[in-house]
Design goal:
The chain is of the alpha/beta class. It has four domains: about 1-75 and about 240-325, Rossmann fold; about 85-190, Glutamyl-tRNA Synthetase, domain 3; about 325-375; about 380-465, Arc Repressor Mutant, subunit A, CATH 1.10.10. The protein has 19 helices and twelve strands. It has helices at about 25-40, 55-70, 85-100, 110-120, 190-200, 215-225, 260-265, 265-275, 290-295, 310-325, 325-340, 350-355, 365-370, 380-390, 395-405, 410-425, 430-440, 450-455, 460-465, and strands at about 10-15, 40-45, 75-80, 100-105, 150, 160-165, 170-175, 180-185, 205-210, 235, 240, 305. α1 crosses α9 and α12 crosses α13 (about 365-370). The longest helix has 16 residues, at about 25-40. The structure holds glutamic acid. Glutamic acid binds near residues 14, 16, 48, 195 and 213.
């Protein structure tokens, strides 16, 4: 049972805008969003753009586009860390005043030399505390003209322990942790410090993120404690691996979320897939986001790495295409069909065509390609035609042509009429269905002939058949 948190739930998605929105990021966003929705809480979008070398406006846009496509709407933000510099400086100043941080004048060379010494002594390299103020300790004279960094006064002893909602209890000894630089010589704050201040200011109650951040968590917890901030719950989600168990990368297929709409995937399929990739609800595989938000809690997150499976995603996409409104599918397939030369004027109703064709298509791109047979002039292959439209079949085609005008234009009535035509000519269904397919659509592979004819409409079928009498 999930116990309802005592305070209103506030979650955040905090991507660094250095590329595209990848699948792992989208899953983190989805879980944070769903958890907030489950409890009627608040979902915050925060852009961690302090890495000026790597952050780009295009990457910010890619994140926003990806989340919009998925429908992961945020309630607050986007907040940009670069716009919060004054706030970080304010907290640094406060920490210096309170003695939870200190000015460190050790030069980079000196720091490197002390690390070298420790490595040589078989110890974990860390800052040796030269400038760390302690009671009764006299600090060295300030070197002239040198700008200090600000270091966090990490506790020297004891452990940092948190109950990770994915990984269980994690304990890190403070001896493993350095006195972290929280502000550089030019005053700019550093990564872990900004995250801690943000999570505090934004009143984040639950932090879900990739497990590449596990090492940052004890540092952030110590900073949060030092500034008197309440601690959020943490959950570190395991990586998404490719189908071969290796880290997911380009060679496994698309890693950017926005490549999926281009390939013809529906957002509800992607969401459904990502929801199950690291979380479970019994054996349920297919569910809507409304259902997911109702079910989602932090108790059934999977601790082991998940493997991305393209076939399963395709299977889910097929399911959600079948569920989708045909008019909506029409909007999705139209651009690709126009590009392929589709003529919609005087052609069958697109929604009706998609309703017929969507049963067996895994992507809307496949659906667009399959639907094309209704929107171009058929050009039956002469050899195939000769093979299927034999002298034995021709009288049946003639009888069929005669009956077109009077038959009720429904699938059932067309099917019944075809049976009569076949019986009158002692033929079997494929003997008329194949040439009819060729004549009317130009190809041999189509859904059931009665359904195809019905959708084409009486006039088109009559006109196309007439050419071969
Ligand atoms: N900006 C970090 C990232 O993109 C996430 C930080 C966090 O969630 O705490 O990996």
């Amino acid at each position: 049972m999930t116990t309802t948190p005592a305070t209103p739930v506030r979650t955040r998605f905090a991507p660094s805008p250095t590329g595209f929105l990848h699948l792992g990021g989208a899953r983190t966003a989805l879980y944070s969003w769903a958890f907030a929705r489950h409890f009627g809480g608040t979902f915050v979008l925060r852009i961690e753009d302090t890495d000026l070398e790597r952050s780009t406006p295009e990457a910010v846009q890619a994140i926003i586009d990806g989340m919009q496509w998925l429908g992961l709407d945020h309630d607050e933000g986007p907040f940009y860390q670069m716009q919060r510099m004054d706030r970080y400086r304010e907290v640094v100043a406060q920490m210096l005043k309170e003695g939870t941080a200190y000015l460190c004048y050790s030069s980079p060379e000196e720091v490197e030399a002390m690390r070298e010494r420790m490595r040589a002594a078989g110890e974990k390299p860390r800052y040796d505390g030269t400038w760390r103020p302690e009671e009764g300790k006299t600090l060295p004279p300030v070197p002239a003209g040198r700008k200090p960094v600000v270091r966090f006064k990490n506790p020297l002893d004891g452990d940092v322990t948190w109950n990770d909602v994915v990984k269980g209890t994690i304990t890190i000894s403070n001896r493993e942790l350095d006195d972290l630089v929280i502000a550089r010589p030019d005053g700019t704050p550093t990564y872990n410090f900004c995250v801690a201040v943000d999570d505090w200011d934004m009143k984040i109650t639950h932090v879900l993120r990739g497990d590449d951040h596990v090492n940052n968590t004890p540092r952030q917890i110590n900073i949060l404690r030092a500034i008197g901030a309440p601690l959020p719950e943490y959950g570190h989600l395991p990586m998404i691996l490719g189908s071969d168990g290796q880290k997911l990368s380009k060679r496994h297929g698309a890693v950017s979320v926005m490549e999926y709409p281009a390939q013809g995937f529906l957002p509800e399929a992607m969401l459904n897939y990502l929801a199950r990739l690291g979380w479970s609800h019994g054996d349920d595989e297919v569910f809507s986001m409304a259902q997911f938000c109702e079910w989602f809690n932090l108790e059934h997150l999977t601790a082991s790495a998940a493997q991305f499976n393209n076939e399963k995603l395709a299977w889910l996409n097929n399911h959600w295409i079948k569920q989708a409104d045909n008019a909506r599918l029409g909007e999705l397939v139209k651009p690709r069909m126009l590009e392929a030369g589709a003529v919609f004027d005087g052609a069958p109703d697109l929604a009706a065509v998609l309703g017929l064709m969507k049963e067996r298509t895994n992507t809307t791109n496949e659906l667009a390609d399959a639907a094309m047979l209704f929107f171009r002039e058929p050009q039956p292959d002469a050899a195939l035609l000769a093979q299927h439209l034999t002298d034995a079949v021709k009288p049946a085609l003639a009888l069929f042509a005669e009956r077109i005008a009077s038959v009720e234009w429904s699938k059932e009535a067309i099917a019944a009429m075809l049976k009569e035509v076949l019986a009158a000519n002692s033929l079997k269904m494929p003997q008329i269905a194949m040439p009819l397919r060729l004549i009317v659509t130009g190809q041999l592979q189509t859904p059931a002939i009665d359904a195809v004819l019905q959708i084409f409409g009486r006039a088109t079928v009559a006109a196309r058949v007439a050419k071969y009498l």
